[in-house]
Specification:
single chain, about 130 residues, alpha+beta, Jelly Rolls, four-stranded antiparallel beta sheet, 8 strands
């Protein structure tokens, strides 16, 4: 548990939480070590998880075209979970990655319990392309 709390403390999305709140999130999150080349999600697939990058680089593409690269502190997978739709992009680990993962139920619990996290995620959703955007 301490290792997950330490990992969460290194991620800006969670860094402002107090120790007890971080422990609550750590209880819900699972650690995932993904080697380079691992596909975390595919565009059009149903949403199952929210990913927080602890270390490594993830490349994101839509319709086969690069959209962005994300590194430590970045997060992905929130749009389809919030909108209860399909994945809007494909995300692949460009390097070996260390991630924290929240399933859809756990993601809902975290965003319902911690308004500051929900606000930061909502701001990211507003900036990112959605299904149907060109």
């Amino acid at each position: 548990m301490d290792s997950k709390v330490d990992l969460l403390g290194r991620v800006p999305l969670f860094a402002a939480l107090d120790e007890r709140s971080m422990e609550a999130v750590a209880t819900l999150a699972r650690e995932l070590d993904a080697p380079a080349g691992t596909v975390l999600m595919r565009e059009g697939d149903p949403a199952e998880s929210f990913y927080v990058i602890v270390s490594g680089t993830v490349h994101v593409e839509r319709s086969g075209l690069p959209v962005r690269s994300m590194t430590a502190g970045g997060f992905l997978g929130e749009i389809a979970l919030i909108e209860q739709g399909e994945r809007t992009a494909t995300a692949t680990c460009a390097t070996d990655c260390e991630l924290l993962v929240l399933g859809s139920f756990e993601f809902g619990r975290v965003t319902a319990t911690f308004p500051e996290i929900r606000t930061r995620i909502a701001a990211a959703v507003a900036r990112r392309p959605h299904a149907g955007d060109s």
